[in-house]
Amino acid sequence: MRKSAIHEVAQVLPPGRWQEFDPFLLMAEDWFRQGTFAEHPHRGIETVTYVISGRMGHYDNKTGHGGVLGPGDVQWMTAGHGVIHQEDPLPGEVVHSLQLWVNLPKELKSMTPRYQDLPHDRVPASQADGVLIRVYSGRMAGLASDTKNVAPVTMAEVQVAKGQSATLDLDPEHNGFLYILEGEGIFGPDAFRGTAGEVLWLSHEGDALSLRAKDHLRFVIYTGKPLHQPVVAYGPFVMTTMDEIRQAFDDYHSGRFLE
Q1: Any known ligand binding at 120?
Q2: pTM higher than 0.85 for the full model?
Q3: Residue 42: pLDDT band with limits 50, 70, 90
Q4: Which cofactor is essential here (predicted)?
């Protein structure tokens, strides 16, 4: 955990474990106030920002897109060949969020940037028998999202009432994990216990995850198809060679990100 007067951050998925996390690169949990993040660039990745609490404004230089995200909303940004953007809480707000970096396939790292805002009340959802599922990307529980993916990724928020059970279908070709936001649950055939603040990686055996809530349980789950490619990361740029990283810095400092 790192702290300043306006920002606290914890590494949920620390950078550097590229092959283990593939296609995911890192995930940070942030608590931040206005002025934490200045304008900054990205290239070669997608960022998936999930707002837990607070309200956050954002904009970028490529798509002309800006807006405000609130609790439960997701911003899916595809940096592609390069974008300069900013995420900033509204005045007086403290935003609590998760930001996941997803790698782009090497042949698509120079694709055109795009933004997708996913308000929580406009994504496919189901609620029955004490179980709420919102699908922000991919497919789960008979729900299908129309969010555009590059590397195929499923993302969902799941809430389960105390004492209730659920079974989530999984793609056996995907690598995946869940991060528990609230409560405690029992997961899988080995009855693994997970509590708030813990990351649980999903087994590659089988195509479903069974779980039971010990008390009100809330988590986000992410699965993605591995890319099996080299990863070279430096600051906000993730490419496949050091030469590509040098080119990214040259393009940024020479103003080509503004073209």
Answers
A1: no
A2: yes
A3: very high
A4: Fe cation
CATH superfamily of the domain spanning 2-121+230-258: Jelly Rolls (2.60.120.10)
Question: What is the residue type of 175?
Answer: N
Dist. CA 134–CA 76, nearest whole Å: 15
For CA atoms 69, 25, 212, 123, give the dihedral sign: positive
> Is 2.60.120.10 the CATH number for 123-224?
yes
Question: 65 a known binding residue?
Answer: no
Write down the residue that tokens 């608590």 correspond to: 31
Burial of 177 (0-12, 13-18, 19+ CB in 10 A): buried
Residue 42 labeled ligand binder: yes
Examine domains 2-121+230-258 and 123-224 and report if their fold is the same. Answer: yes
Three-class DSSP category at 13? strand
Collapsing DSSP to helix, strand or coil, 104 comes out as coil
The residue ranges of every structural domain in the chain are: 2-121+230-258, 123-224
Partnered with residue 26 across adjacent β-strands are 101
Contacts of 134 by beta carbon, 8 Å cutoff, 6+ apart: 72, 120, 123, 124, 125, 156, 157
For residue 174, say whether it is annotated as part of any ligand binding site. no
